[in-house]
Protein backbone atom coordinates (compact mmCIF):
# COMPACT_ATOMS: atom_id res chain seq x y z
CA UNK A 1 0.00 0.00 0.00
CA UNK A 2 2.00 2.96 -1.18
CA UNK A 3 1.25 6.33 0.33
CA UNK A 4 -0.66 8.94 -1.63
CA UNK A 5 2.45 11.04 -1.89
CA UNK A 6 4.46 8.18 -3.37
CA UNK A 7 1.67 7.31 -5.76
CA UNK A 8 1.44 10.90 -6.97
CA UNK A 9 5.20 11.19 -7.26
CA UNK A 10 5.35 8.12 -9.47
CA UNK A 11 2.62 9.53 -11.71
CA UNK A 12 4.36 12.90 -11.93
CA UNK A 13 7.55 11.20 -12.99
CA UNK A 14 5.69 9.38 -15.77
CA UNK A 15 4.17 12.66 -16.90
CA UNK A 16 7.57 14.35 -16.90
CA UNK A 17 8.98 11.63 -19.10
CA UNK A 18 5.98 11.76 -21.42
CA UNK A 19 6.20 15.53 -21.73
CA UNK A 20 9.95 16.12 -21.86
CA UNK A 21 11.56 12.81 -22.71
CA UNK A 22 13.51 10.02 -21.03
CA UNK A 23 16.08 12.41 -19.55
CA UNK A 24 13.42 13.28 -17.00
CA UNK A 25 13.47 9.78 -15.51
CA UNK A 26 14.31 10.05 -11.82
CA UNK A 27 13.58 13.78 -11.61
CA UNK A 28 12.16 14.72 -8.23
CA UNK A 29 8.66 16.16 -8.77
CA UNK A 30 9.11 18.07 -5.48
CA UNK A 31 5.74 17.17 -4.20
CA UNK A 32 4.84 18.05 -0.62
CA UNK A 33 1.66 18.27 1.44
CA UNK A 34 0.24 21.73 0.79
CA UNK A 35 0.88 24.26 3.51
CA UNK A 36 -2.62 25.67 3.23
CA UNK A 37 -5.89 23.99 2.20
CA UNK A 38 -6.28 26.84 -0.32
CA UNK A 39 -3.57 25.11 -2.36
CA UNK A 40 -5.31 21.76 -2.36
CA UNK A 41 -3.82 18.78 -0.56
CA UNK A 42 -0.44 18.46 -2.24
CA UNK A 43 1.66 20.91 -4.13
CA UNK A 44 4.52 20.47 -6.59
CA UNK A 45 7.08 23.11 -7.50
CA UNK A 46 8.80 20.94 -10.10
CA UNK A 47 7.85 23.32 -12.92
CA UNK A 48 9.58 26.20 -11.16
CA UNK A 49 12.85 24.36 -10.76
CA UNK A 50 12.68 22.93 -14.29
CA UNK A 51 12.21 26.35 -15.91
CA UNK A 52 15.92 27.01 -16.21
CA UNK A 53 17.12 23.60 -17.42
CA UNK A 54 14.23 23.37 -19.89
CA UNK A 55 14.40 27.01 -20.95
CA UNK A 56 10.62 27.44 -20.78
CA UNK A 57 8.31 29.49 -18.58
CA UNK A 58 7.29 27.57 -15.45
CA UNK A 59 3.56 27.97 -15.97
CA UNK A 60 3.86 26.42 -19.43
CA UNK A 61 5.86 23.53 -18.01
CA UNK A 62 3.26 23.06 -15.32
CA UNK A 63 0.49 22.94 -17.91
CA UNK A 64 2.41 20.45 -20.08
CA UNK A 65 2.90 18.28 -17.05
CA UNK A 66 -0.78 18.42 -16.16
CA UNK A 67 -1.72 17.49 -19.73
CA UNK A 68 0.27 14.30 -19.34
CA UNK A 69 -0.75 13.54 -15.79
CA UNK A 70 -3.08 10.62 -15.39
CA UNK A 71 -4.29 11.06 -11.84
CA UNK A 72 -8.05 10.85 -12.28
CA UNK A 73 -8.22 7.89 -9.92
CA UNK A 74 -6.66 9.94 -7.12
CA UNK A 75 -7.54 13.60 -7.54
CA UNK A 76 -9.43 16.21 -9.47
CA UNK A 77 -7.65 17.69 -12.49
CA UNK A 78 -4.59 19.44 -11.04
CA UNK A 79 -4.40 23.21 -11.41
CA UNK A 80 -1.57 25.65 -12.11
CA UNK A 81 -1.23 28.27 -9.42
CA UNK A 82 0.83 31.43 -9.00
CA UNK A 83 4.21 31.39 -10.74
CA UNK A 84 3.84 27.73 -11.71
CA UNK A 85 2.92 25.57 -8.75
CA UNK A 86 0.79 22.54 -9.42
CA UNK A 87 -1.98 21.92 -6.90
CA UNK A 88 -3.54 18.55 -6.30
CA UNK A 89 -6.86 18.02 -4.54
CA UNK A 90 -7.82 14.48 -3.57
CA UNK A 91 -11.19 13.02 -4.52
CA UNK A 92 -13.49 11.82 -1.73
CA UNK A 93 -13.89 8.44 -3.44
CA UNK A 94 -10.14 7.93 -3.30
CA UNK A 95 -10.06 8.88 0.37
CA UNK A 96 -12.95 6.57 1.14
CA UNK A 97 -11.35 3.62 -0.59
CA UNK A 98 -8.09 4.14 1.27
CA UNK A 99 -9.78 4.57 4.63
CA UNK A 100 -11.86 1.47 4.12
CA UNK A 101 -8.74 -0.49 3.33
CA UNK A 102 -6.79 0.85 6.31
CA UNK A 103 -9.64 0.13 8.63
CA UNK A 104 -8.98 -3.57 8.80
CA UNK A 105 -5.28 -3.42 8.06
CA UNK A 106 -3.36 -4.49 11.19
CA UNK A 107 -1.03 -1.50 10.91
CA UNK A 108 -3.59 0.99 9.68
CA UNK A 109 -2.11 0.93 6.22
CA UNK A 110 1.44 1.66 7.30
CA UNK A 111 3.48 -0.88 5.43
CA UNK A 112 6.78 -2.35 6.65
CA UNK A 113 10.06 -1.04 5.21
CA UNK A 114 10.83 -2.49 1.79
CA UNK A 115 14.38 -3.21 2.85
CA UNK A 116 14.53 -3.85 6.57
CA UNK A 117 17.90 -3.06 8.04
CA UNK A 118 19.91 -4.03 11.05
CA UNK A 119 19.96 -0.86 13.11
CA UNK A 120 21.79 -0.12 16.33
CA UNK A 121 20.25 2.51 18.57
CA UNK A 122 22.76 3.54 21.24
CA UNK A 123 20.78 5.39 23.88
CA UNK A 124 20.26 6.09 27.58
CA UNK A 125 23.84 5.07 28.50
CA UNK A 126 24.21 6.41 32.05
CA UNK A 127 27.38 6.02 34.05
CA UNK A 128 27.91 3.53 36.86
CA UNK A 129 28.01 4.99 40.36
CA UNK A 130 26.87 8.33 39.05
CA UNK A 131 23.44 9.83 38.99
CA UNK A 132 21.35 9.15 35.97
CA UNK A 133 20.48 12.75 35.15
CA UNK A 134 17.93 14.54 32.99
CA UNK A 135 20.27 14.31 29.99
CA UNK A 136 20.06 10.53 30.28
CA UNK A 137 16.31 10.84 30.66
CA UNK A 138 16.11 12.66 27.33
CA UNK A 139 18.34 10.10 25.68
CA UNK A 140 16.21 7.29 27.12
CA UNK A 141 12.91 8.78 25.97
CA UNK A 142 14.09 9.87 22.51
CA UNK A 143 16.11 6.71 21.89
CA UNK A 144 13.23 4.46 22.91
CA UNK A 145 10.86 6.33 20.59
CA UNK A 146 13.26 6.06 17.65
CA UNK A 147 13.74 2.37 18.32
CA UNK A 148 9.98 1.84 18.51
CA UNK A 149 9.43 3.53 15.17
CA UNK A 150 12.17 1.53 13.49
CA UNK A 151 10.85 -1.70 14.98
CA UNK A 152 7.36 -0.86 13.82
CA UNK A 153 8.69 -0.49 10.29
CA UNK A 154 10.16 -3.97 10.66
CA UNK A 155 13.81 -3.07 11.04
CA UNK A 156 15.93 -5.37 13.10
CA UNK A 157 16.79 -3.06 15.98
CA UNK A 158 19.51 -3.62 18.53
CA UNK A 159 18.87 -1.32 21.49
CA UNK A 160 22.18 -0.81 23.21
CA UNK A 161 22.94 0.74 26.56
CA UNK A 162 26.52 1.99 26.29
CA UNK A 163 26.86 2.27 30.05
CA UNK A 164 29.94 4.03 31.44
CA UNK A 165 31.15 1.02 33.42
CA UNK A 166 34.89 1.21 32.89
CA UNK A 167 37.68 3.69 33.39
CA UNK A 168 40.02 5.13 35.94
CA UNK A 169 37.23 6.33 38.23
CA UNK A 170 36.76 2.71 39.28
CA UNK A 171 40.21 2.75 40.90
CA UNK A 172 39.00 5.46 43.19
CA UNK A 173 35.65 3.82 43.86
CA UNK A 174 37.10 0.42 44.62
CA UNK A 175 39.78 1.84 46.90
CA UNK A 176 37.10 3.67 48.80
CA UNK A 177 34.97 0.56 48.95
CA UNK A 178 37.88 -1.34 50.51
CA UNK A 179 38.09 1.36 53.14
CA UNK A 180 34.47 1.64 54.15
CA UNK A 181 33.11 -1.81 53.42
CA UNK A 182 35.93 -4.36 53.20
CA UNK A 183 33.51 -7.26 53.77
CA UNK A 184 31.83 -6.40 50.46
CA UNK A 185 34.84 -7.74 48.57
CA UNK A 186 34.77 -11.17 50.14
CA UNK A 187 31.14 -12.11 50.64
CA UNK A 188 29.09 -13.64 47.90
CA UNK A 189 25.95 -11.93 49.19
CA UNK A 190 24.53 -8.81 47.65
CA UNK A 191 25.70 -5.76 49.57
CA UNK A 192 23.84 -2.50 49.74
CA UNK A 193 26.24 0.38 49.36
CA UNK A 194 23.59 2.94 50.17
CA UNK A 195 23.29 6.03 48.07
CA UNK A 196 25.84 5.50 45.31
CA UNK A 197 25.95 9.14 44.39
CA UNK A 198 27.08 10.25 47.80
CA UNK A 199 29.40 7.24 47.82
CA UNK A 200 30.95 8.60 44.63
CA UNK A 201 31.24 12.06 46.12
CA UNK A 202 32.97 10.79 49.25
CA UNK A 203 35.36 8.66 47.23
CA UNK A 204 36.21 11.66 45.10
CA UNK A 205 36.87 13.73 48.19
CA UNK A 206 39.28 11.10 49.53
CA UNK A 207 40.95 10.91 46.13
CA UNK A 208 41.41 14.66 45.85
CA UNK A 209 42.88 15.10 49.31
CA UNK A 210 45.06 12.06 49.96
CA UNK A 211 48.08 11.05 47.94
CA UNK A 212 48.35 7.60 49.46
CA UNK A 213 44.75 7.02 48.45
CA UNK A 214 45.51 8.22 44.94
CA UNK A 215 48.34 5.76 44.56
CA UNK A 216 46.17 2.93 45.87
CA UNK A 217 43.49 3.92 43.35
CA UNK A 218 45.99 3.75 40.51
CA UNK A 219 47.05 0.29 41.62
CA UNK A 220 43.44 -0.73 41.73
CA UNK A 221 43.00 0.30 38.07
CA UNK A 222 45.95 -1.86 37.11
CA UNK A 223 44.46 -4.78 39.05
CA UNK A 224 41.10 -4.29 37.39
CA UNK A 225 42.74 -4.34 33.96
CA UNK A 226 44.63 -7.50 34.94
CA UNK A 227 41.41 -9.12 36.14
CA UNK A 228 42.31 -9.55 39.82
CA UNK A 229 39.51 -11.48 41.54
CA UNK A 230 38.71 -9.22 44.48
CA UNK A 231 38.99 -6.03 42.46
CA UNK A 232 36.69 -7.45 39.85
CA UNK A 233 34.23 -8.46 42.51
CA UNK A 234 34.18 -4.90 43.84
CA UNK A 235 33.68 -3.57 40.32
CA UNK A 236 30.78 -5.95 39.77
CA UNK A 237 29.23 -4.92 43.04
CA UNK A 238 29.25 -1.29 42.03
CA UNK A 239 27.82 -2.11 38.62
CA UNK A 240 25.09 -4.30 40.04
CA UNK A 241 23.90 -1.67 42.44
CA UNK A 242 23.82 1.01 39.76
CA UNK A 243 22.06 -1.37 37.44
CA UNK A 244 19.32 -1.95 40.01
CA UNK A 245 18.84 1.78 40.34
CA UNK A 246 18.73 2.34 36.60
CA UNK A 247 16.25 -0.49 36.25
CA UNK A 248 13.77 1.30 38.51
CA UNK A 249 13.75 4.16 36.03
CA UNK A 250 13.48 1.86 33.00
CA UNK A 251 10.57 0.02 34.60
CA UNK A 252 8.75 3.25 35.32
CA UNK A 253 9.29 4.38 31.75
CA UNK A 254 8.61 0.94 30.28
CA UNK A 255 11.86 1.00 28.35
CA UNK A 256 13.70 -2.13 27.31
CA UNK A 257 17.37 -1.99 26.50
CA UNK A 258 20.31 -4.35 26.36
CA UNK A 259 23.30 -3.42 28.43
CA UNK A 260 26.58 -3.49 26.59
CA UNK A 261 28.76 -1.09 28.48
CA UNK A 262 32.21 0.29 27.79
CA UNK A 263 33.84 -2.64 29.61
CA UNK A 264 32.58 -4.97 26.89
CA UNK A 265 34.91 -3.35 24.38
CA UNK A 266 37.91 -3.24 26.68
CA UNK A 267 39.59 -6.34 25.21
CA UNK A 268 39.23 -4.83 21.73
CA UNK A 269 41.03 -1.56 22.46
CA UNK A 270 44.63 -2.65 21.76
CA UNK A 271 43.55 -3.69 18.27
CA UNK A 272 42.02 -0.30 17.60
CA UNK A 273 45.37 1.32 18.31
CA UNK A 274 47.27 -1.34 16.38
CA UNK A 275 45.07 -1.04 13.31
CA UNK A 276 45.23 2.73 13.35
CA UNK A 277 48.99 2.41 13.44
CA UNK A 278 48.94 0.05 10.48
CA UNK A 279 46.75 2.38 8.47
CA UNK A 280 49.37 5.08 8.99
CA UNK A 281 47.06 7.44 10.85
CA UNK A 282 48.64 7.14 14.27
CA UNK A 283 51.04 9.80 15.50
CA UNK A 284 52.89 9.78 18.80
CA UNK A 285 52.67 13.14 20.51
CA UNK A 286 54.31 13.67 23.90
CA UNK A 287 53.99 9.98 24.61
CA UNK A 288 50.30 9.83 23.70
CA UNK A 289 49.08 7.99 20.65
CA UNK A 290 46.71 10.05 18.60
CA UNK A 291 45.22 10.80 15.24
CA UNK A 292 45.39 14.40 14.04
CA UNK A 293 41.95 15.48 12.97
CA UNK A 294 40.98 17.28 9.82
CA UNK A 295 38.84 20.36 10.32
CA UNK A 296 39.33 20.52 14.10
CA UNK A 297 41.85 23.06 15.29
CA UNK A 298 42.86 24.61 18.57
CA UNK A 299 42.92 28.35 19.25
CA UNK A 300 46.22 28.73 17.46
CA UNK A 301 44.82 27.07 14.36
CA UNK A 302 46.83 23.87 14.81
CA UNK A 303 45.15 20.54 14.07
CA UNK A 304 43.64 18.89 17.14
CA UNK A 305 44.62 15.35 18.08
CA UNK A 306 42.16 12.64 19.04
CA UNK A 307 44.05 10.75 21.73
CA UNK A 308 43.39 7.02 21.50
CA UNK A 309 45.98 5.92 24.04
CA UNK A 310 47.31 8.13 26.78
CA UNK A 311 50.99 8.25 27.69
CA UNK A 312 50.30 6.06 30.75
CA UNK A 313 48.86 3.39 28.46
CA UNK A 314 45.23 4.07 29.36
CA UNK A 315 42.52 4.37 26.75
CA UNK A 316 39.88 7.04 26.26
CA UNK A 317 36.13 7.36 25.78
CA UNK A 318 36.81 7.84 22.06
CA UNK A 319 38.90 4.68 21.79
CA UNK A 320 36.00 2.70 23.21
CA UNK A 321 33.64 4.30 20.74
CA UNK A 322 35.94 3.37 17.88
CA UNK A 323 36.00 -0.22 19.07
CA UNK A 324 32.21 -0.20 19.51
CA UNK A 325 31.69 1.20 16.05
CA UNK A 326 33.78 -1.55 14.48
CA UNK A 327 32.12 -4.22 16.53
CA UNK A 328 28.64 -3.06 15.61
CA UNK A 329 29.46 -3.04 11.92
CA UNK A 330 31.59 -6.18 11.72
CA UNK A 331 29.98 -8.40 14.34
CA UNK A 332 26.41 -7.11 14.50
CA UNK A 333 26.05 -6.31 10.82
CA UNK A 334 24.63 -2.87 11.53
CA UNK A 335 23.69 -0.83 8.48
CA UNK A 336 22.59 2.18 10.45
CA UNK A 337 23.98 3.25 13.82
CA UNK A 338 22.17 5.93 15.78
CA UNK A 339 23.71 7.62 18.82
CA UNK A 340 21.33 9.55 21.04
CA UNK A 341 23.20 11.96 23.32
CA UNK A 342 23.19 15.61 24.28
CA UNK A 343 24.40 18.09 21.69
CA UNK A 344 27.51 18.66 23.80
CA UNK A 345 28.93 15.41 22.42
CA UNK A 346 28.58 16.44 18.78
CA UNK A 347 32.32 17.03 18.40
CA UNK A 348 33.18 13.77 20.06
CA UNK A 349 31.09 11.85 17.55
CA UNK A 350 32.22 13.88 14.56
CA UNK A 351 35.80 13.09 15.54
CA UNK A 352 35.22 9.40 16.13
CA UNK A 353 33.32 9.12 12.83
CA UNK A 354 36.09 10.91 10.97
CA UNK A 355 38.82 8.64 12.33
CA UNK A 356 36.76 5.52 11.55
CA UNK A 357 36.14 6.86 8.07
CA UNK A 358 39.78 7.62 7.37
CA UNK A 359 40.83 4.26 8.77
CA UNK A 360 38.54 2.62 6.22
CA UNK A 361 36.28 1.06 8.84
CA UNK A 362 33.08 2.53 7.46
CA UNK A 363 31.61 0.74 4.46
CA UNK A 364 29.65 3.10 2.28
CA UNK A 365 26.38 1.29 2.90
CA UNK A 366 26.59 1.99 6.61
CA UNK A 367 25.02 5.16 7.89
CA UNK A 368 26.16 6.53 11.23
CA UNK A 369 24.26 9.36 12.83
CA UNK A 370 24.55 11.34 15.97
CA UNK A 371 21.09 12.37 17.16
CA UNK A 372 21.78 15.34 19.42
CA UNK A 373 19.39 16.99 21.82
CA UNK A 374 19.32 20.18 23.87
CA UNK A 375 19.25 20.82 27.60
CA UNK A 376 16.41 20.47 30.06
CA UNK A 377 15.84 23.82 31.74
CA UNK A 378 14.01 24.75 34.91
CA UNK A 379 11.17 27.27 34.83
CA UNK A 380 13.75 29.95 35.59
CA UNK A 381 15.32 29.24 32.21
CA UNK A 382 18.50 27.83 33.78
CA UNK A 383 19.70 24.23 33.84
CA UNK A 384 17.18 22.16 35.79
CA UNK A 385 18.07 22.06 39.52
CA UNK A 386 16.24 21.38 42.76
CA UNK A 387 15.24 24.36 44.91
CA UNK A 388 18.35 23.89 46.98
CA UNK A 389 20.44 23.95 43.82
CA UNK A 390 21.28 20.27 43.51
CA UNK A 391 20.87 18.12 40.42
CA UNK A 392 17.41 16.65 40.24
CA UNK A 393 17.16 12.93 40.91
CA UNK A 394 15.31 11.23 38.09
CA UNK A 395 13.47 8.96 40.43
CA UNK A 396 12.10 11.96 42.33
CA UNK A 397 11.19 13.71 39.11
CA UNK A 398 9.17 10.78 37.82
CA UNK A 399 7.53 10.15 41.19
CA UNK A 400 6.54 13.77 41.32
CA UNK A 401 5.03 13.61 37.84
CA UNK A 402 2.86 10.71 38.98
CA UNK A 403 1.89 12.47 42.21
CA UNK A 404 0.91 15.60 40.32
CA UNK A 405 -1.12 13.60 37.80
CA UNK A 406 -2.85 11.95 40.71
CA UNK A 407 -3.70 15.22 42.40
CA UNK A 408 -5.16 16.56 39.15
CA UNK A 409 -7.21 13.42 38.70
CA UNK A 410 -8.53 13.45 42.25
CA UNK A 411 -9.65 17.05 41.86
CA UNK A 412 -11.46 16.18 38.68
CA UNK A 413 -13.08 13.09 40.16
CA UNK A 414 -14.35 15.14 43.05
CA UNK A 415 -15.61 17.98 40.88
CA UNK A 416 -17.49 15.53 38.69
CA UNK A 417 -18.85 13.62 41.66
CA UNK A 418 -17.41 10.34 40.37
CA UNK A 419 -16.69 7.22 42.39
CA UNK A 420 -13.42 5.56 41.38
CA UNK A 421 -11.40 2.74 42.90
CA UNK A 422 -7.91 3.24 44.25
CA UNK A 423 -6.69 0.84 41.59
CA UNK A 424 -8.14 3.01 38.83
CA UNK A 425 -6.68 6.19 40.30
CA UNK A 426 -3.25 4.67 40.67
CA UNK A 427 -3.22 3.30 37.15
CA UNK A 428 -4.40 6.52 35.52
CA UNK A 429 -1.97 8.64 37.54
CA UNK A 430 0.93 6.41 36.56
CA UNK A 431 0.05 6.39 32.86
CA UNK A 432 -0.67 10.12 32.69
CA UNK A 433 2.42 11.05 34.71
CA UNK A 434 4.81 9.07 32.54
CA UNK A 435 3.03 10.08 29.36
CA UNK A 436 3.30 13.75 30.33
CA UNK A 437 7.04 13.57 30.94
CA UNK A 438 7.72 11.65 27.74
CA UNK A 439 5.48 13.76 25.56
CA UNK A 440 6.83 17.06 26.88
CA UNK A 441 10.26 15.90 25.80
CA UNK A 442 9.33 14.35 22.47
CA UNK A 443 7.04 17.13 21.30
CA UNK A 444 9.89 19.66 21.24
CA UNK A 445 12.27 19.75 18.36
CA UNK A 446 14.94 17.73 20.11
CA UNK A 447 17.77 20.02 19.10
CA UNK A 448 16.41 22.88 21.18
CA UNK A 449 16.49 23.25 24.95
CA UNK A 450 13.17 22.81 26.66
CA UNK A 451 11.68 24.06 29.88
CA UNK A 452 10.54 21.35 32.24
CA UNK A 453 7.19 22.41 33.67
CA UNK A 454 4.82 20.04 35.41
CA UNK A 455 1.96 22.51 35.05
CA UNK A 456 2.38 22.73 31.32
CA UNK A 457 3.00 19.06 30.61
CA UNK A 458 0.03 17.95 32.73
CA UNK A 459 -2.39 20.48 31.30
CA UNK A 460 -5.45 19.11 29.54
CA UNK A 461 -5.14 21.90 27.00
CA UNK A 462 -2.57 22.40 24.29
CA UNK A 463 -0.03 20.07 22.76
CA UNK A 464 0.27 17.76 25.77
CA UNK A 465 -0.07 14.08 26.55
CA UNK A 466 -3.21 14.53 28.68
CA UNK A 467 -4.88 16.32 25.77
CA UNK A 468 -4.18 13.43 23.41
CA UNK A 469 -5.05 10.78 25.97
CA UNK A 470 -8.27 12.61 26.59
CA UNK A 471 -9.11 12.68 22.89
CA UNK A 472 -8.66 8.92 22.79
CA UNK A 473 -10.71 8.31 25.95
CA UNK A 474 -13.46 10.57 24.64
CA UNK A 475 -13.86 8.43 21.54
CA UNK A 476 -14.01 5.32 23.69
CA UNK A 477 -16.73 6.95 25.72
CA UNK A 478 -18.71 7.72 22.56
CA UNK A 479 -18.47 4.03 21.79
CA UNK A 480 -19.65 3.06 25.27
CA UNK A 481 -22.50 5.52 25.16
CA UNK A 482 -23.72 4.19 21.83
CA UNK A 483 -23.12 0.57 22.79
CA UNK A 484 -20.75 0.23 19.85
CA UNK A 485 -18.44 -2.68 19.25
CA UNK A 486 -15.82 -0.92 17.14
CA UNK A 487 -14.02 -4.08 16.21
CA UNK A 488 -17.13 -5.58 14.75
CA UNK A 489 -18.11 -2.32 13.11
CA UNK A 490 -14.82 -2.21 11.20
CA UNK A 491 -15.62 -5.36 9.31
CA UNK A 492 -19.16 -4.37 8.39
CA UNK A 493 -19.12 -0.66 7.62
CA UNK A 494 -17.77 1.58 4.86
CA UNK A 495 -16.85 5.21 5.30
CA UNK A 496 -18.52 7.78 3.13
CA UNK A 497 -17.40 11.40 3.27
CA UNK A 498 -19.98 14.11 2.89
CA UNK A 499 -19.05 17.08 5.06
CA UNK A 500 -15.88 19.17 4.80
CA UNK A 501 -14.87 18.32 8.37
CA UNK A 502 -15.13 14.64 7.53
CA UNK A 503 -12.87 15.03 4.50
CA UNK A 504 -10.39 17.14 6.44
CA UNK A 505 -10.19 14.53 9.17
CA UNK A 506 -9.95 11.74 6.59
CA UNK A 507 -7.04 13.37 4.78
CA UNK A 508 -5.19 13.84 8.01
CA UNK A 509 -5.80 10.23 9.02
CA UNK A 510 -4.30 9.08 5.75
CA UNK A 511 -1.08 10.96 6.37
CA UNK A 512 0.01 8.72 9.22
CA UNK A 513 1.99 6.59 6.80
CA UNK A 514 4.02 9.53 5.52
CA UNK A 515 4.63 10.95 8.97
CA UNK A 516 5.99 7.70 10.34
CA UNK A 517 8.29 7.26 7.37
CA UNK A 518 9.50 10.79 7.76
CA UNK A 519 10.38 10.24 11.42
CA UNK A 520 12.12 7.03 10.46
CA UNK A 521 14.37 9.07 8.15
CA UNK A 522 14.74 12.38 9.97
CA UNK A 523 14.67 10.97 13.49
CA UNK A 524 12.58 13.87 14.74
CA UNK A 525 9.81 12.51 16.99
CA UNK A 526 8.25 15.97 17.37
CA UNK A 527 6.85 15.58 13.85
CA UNK A 528 4.80 12.62 15.01
CA UNK A 529 3.66 14.56 18.10
CA UNK A 530 2.62 17.48 15.95
CA UNK A 531 0.72 15.12 13.66
CA UNK A 532 -1.15 13.56 16.58
CA UNK A 533 -1.93 16.93 18.08
CA UNK A 534 -3.38 18.14 14.78
CA UNK A 535 -5.30 14.91 14.50
CA UNK A 536 -6.95 15.54 17.87
CA UNK A 537 -7.77 19.08 16.86
CA UNK A 538 -9.27 18.00 13.56
CA UNK A 539 -11.22 15.36 15.36
CA UNK A 540 -12.61 17.98 17.74
CA UNK A 541 -13.68 20.17 14.83
CA UNK A 542 -15.34 17.22 13.17
CA UNK A 543 -17.07 16.16 16.36
CA UNK A 544 -18.28 19.70 17.04
CA UNK A 545 -19.80 20.04 13.58
CA UNK A 546 -20.93 16.54 12.76
CA UNK A 547 -23.26 14.78 15.18
CA UNK A 548 -22.30 11.12 15.50
CA UNK A 549 -24.66 9.11 17.67
CA UNK A 550 -27.64 11.29 16.78
CA UNK A 551 -27.12 11.13 13.00
CA UNK A 552 -29.31 8.90 10.84
CA UNK A 553 -28.20 5.29 10.60
CA UNK A 554 -25.86 5.19 7.56
CA UNK A 555 -24.22 8.53 8.41
CA UNK A 556 -23.93 7.44 12.04
CA UNK A 557 -22.03 4.28 11.14
CA UNK A 558 -19.70 6.06 8.75
CA UNK A 559 -18.94 8.72 11.36
CA UNK A 560 -18.38 6.10 14.01
CA UNK A 561 -15.79 4.60 11.71
CA UNK A 562 -14.07 7.97 11.48
CA UNK A 563 -14.09 8.09 15.28
CA UNK A 564 -12.64 4.62 15.46
CA UNK A 565 -9.93 5.33 12.90
CA UNK A 566 -8.97 8.44 14.83
CA UNK A 567 -8.75 6.45 18.05
CA UNK A 568 -6.73 3.69 16.42
CA UNK A 569 -4.36 6.20 14.87
CA UNK A 570 -3.91 7.99 18.20
CA UNK A 571 -3.25 4.70 19.91
CA UNK A 572 -0.71 3.66 17.33
CA UNK A 573 1.04 7.03 17.30
CA UNK A 574 1.18 7.22 21.07
CA UNK A 575 2.48 3.67 21.32
CA UNK A 576 5.33 4.68 19.02
CA UNK A 577 6.12 7.46 21.47
CA UNK A 578 6.16 4.91 24.28
CA UNK A 579 2.84 6.07 25.68
CA UNK A 580 -0.09 3.79 26.45
CA UNK A 581 -3.67 4.93 26.15
CA UNK A 582 -6.49 4.89 28.71
CA UNK A 583 -10.05 3.81 28.03
CA UNK A 584 -11.20 6.20 30.71
CA UNK A 585 -9.43 8.92 32.62
N1 LIG B 1 27.94 7.51 29.12
C1 LIG B 1 27.91 8.66 28.27
C2 LIG B 1 27.45 9.87 29.05
O1 LIG B 1 26.87 9.76 30.09
C3 LIG B 1 27.02 8.48 27.06
C4 LIG B 1 27.42 7.40 26.10
C5 LIG B 1 26.80 7.57 24.76
N2 LIG B 1 27.16 6.53 23.82
C6 LIG B 1 28.34 6.38 23.25
N3 LIG B 1 28.52 5.38 22.42
N4 LIG B 1 29.34 7.20 23.49
O2 LIG B 1 27.66 10.99 28.61
UniProtKB/TrEMBL annotation:
Compartments (UniProt record): Cytoplasm
Pfam families in the cross-refs: Arg_tRNA_synt_N, DALR_1, tRNA-synt_1d
Location of the motif 'HIGH' region: 126-136
Domain of life: Bacteria
Chain ranges of the Arginyl tRNA synthetase N-terminal domain: 6-90
Enzyme Commission numbers on file: 6.1.1.19
Catalytic activity: tRNA(Arg) + L-arginine + ATP = L-arginyl-tRNA(Arg) + AMP + diphosphate
Keyword tags: Aminoacyl-tRNA synthetase, ATP-binding, Cytoplasm, Ligase, Nucleotide-binding, Protein biosynthesis
Single Gene Ontology MF annotation: arginine-tRNA ligase activity
Catalytic EC class: ligase
Chief subcellular location: cytoplasm
Residue span, DALR anticodon binding domain: 468-585
GO BP annotation list: arginyl-tRNA aminoacylation
Coiled-coil residue windows: none
Cellular component per GO, a single term: cytoplasm
Subunit record text: Monomer.
Family: Belongs to the class-I aminoacyl-tRNA synthetase family.
Protein name from the UniProt record: Arginine--tRNA ligase
Source organism per UniProt: Coleofasciculus chthonoplastes PCC 7420
Gene encoding the protein: argS
